[in-house]
């Protein structure tokens, strides 16, 4: 598929999961394609980074479900912060483990899963809709009943994939991209390069095959498609460009870099990088 074909299958009001972690291996080319559409009123489920910042600044998010929103080397995502401070989006902020078990519950088609995370913290106070559940066994322990984070669609980015939808990560961490895909009714995977199936395990262990074709709806080849987030070992985070993003007014950044298609974005980034050289 192309990125625009993926976005053509999305609609306003959807619950959209976005893989990656902070400013690491985010499906940014798919997010940029989403920004070129008129889709809005989204519930976004993400271990948030610039994906959330861009969509929030563009006014596309109605509700955000997250454990954090960070640029990693810049602790707090500034465009998300501005949206939150203005009250333009609803927030469900939960513990990282609660988030993971919410995806697990959805992937297993369960309404909820019990989890200790959150007990003894303010997470129940700031999320009054959460409930607890008591163990039916002798221990009688109380747990948070973490509701399933069911997704209408998921967007994730990996290093390699084949045309059938098998996806491979080559970096240090799988994050939770497999759970995002399994928790979704439709999952779209962007990758640095599409290769033949046999190539996936030619120089990498089978354990790197994170995504199974049975949970993937479509594959998009997007070289440098995680920019400006990292996609190790193919490339690291573009710290200089991330700083530009974090310190620029959104309208100014969008006018220069998001006004057209992905090719235009990559060209604009290269032009900016040349300007920075002495």
Describe this structure in words.
- With about 280 residues, the protein is of the alpha/beta class.
- The protein has 2 domains: about 5-95 and about 150-240, Glutaconate Coenzyme A-transferase (3-Layer(aba) Sandwich), CATH 3.40.1080; about 115-145, no CATH class.
- Helices cover about 30% and strands about 25% of the residues.
- It has helices at about 5-10, 30-35, 50-55, 80-85, 95-105, 125, 175-180, 240-245, 250-255, 260-275, and strands at about 15-20, 40-45, 60-65, 90-95, 110-115, 130-135, 140-145, 150-160, 165-170, 185-195, 210, 220.
- Strands 1, 2, 3, 4, 8, 9, 10, 11 and 12 form a 9-stranded mixed β-sheet that branches. The chain has a 3-stranded antiparallel β-sheet with strand order 5-7-6.
- The protein is globular and about 70 Å long.
- The chain starts with a helix and ends with a helix.
């Amino acid at each position: 598929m192309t990125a625009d074909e993926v976005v053509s299958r999305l609609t306003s009001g959807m619950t959209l999961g976005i893989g990656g972690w902070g400013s690491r291996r985010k499906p940014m080319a798919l997010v940029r394609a989403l920004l070129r559409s008129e889709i809005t009123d989204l519930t976004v489920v993400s271990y948030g980074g610039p994906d959330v910042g861009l969509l929030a600044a563009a006014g596309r998010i109605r509700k955000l479900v997250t454990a954090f929103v960070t640029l990693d080397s810049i602790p707090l995502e500034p465009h998300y912060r501005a949206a939150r401070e203005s009250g333009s989006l609803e927030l469900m902020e939960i513990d990282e483990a609660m988030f993971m078990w919410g995806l697990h519950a959805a992937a297993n088609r369960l309404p909820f899963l019990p989890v200790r995370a959150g007990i003894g913290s303010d997470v129940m106070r700031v999320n009054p809709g959460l409930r607890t559940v008591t163990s039916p066994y002798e221990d009688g322990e109380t747990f948070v009943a973490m509701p399933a984070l069911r997704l209408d669609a998921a967007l994730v980015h990996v290093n390699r994939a084949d045309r059938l939808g098998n996806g491979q990560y080559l970096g240090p961490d799988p994050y939770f991209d497999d759970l995002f895909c399994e928790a979704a009714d439709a999952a779209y995977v962007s990758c640095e390069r599409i290769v033949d199936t046999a190539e996936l395990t030619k120089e990498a262990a089978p354990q790197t095959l994170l995504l199974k074709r049975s949970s993937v709806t479509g594959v998009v080849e997007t070289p440098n498609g995680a920019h400006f987030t990292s996609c190790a070992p193919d490339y690291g985070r573009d710290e200089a460009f991330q700083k530009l993003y974090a310190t620029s007014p959104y309208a100014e950044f969008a006018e220069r870099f998001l006004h057209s298609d992905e090719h235009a974005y990559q060209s604009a980034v290269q032009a900016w990088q040349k300007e920075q050289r002495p």
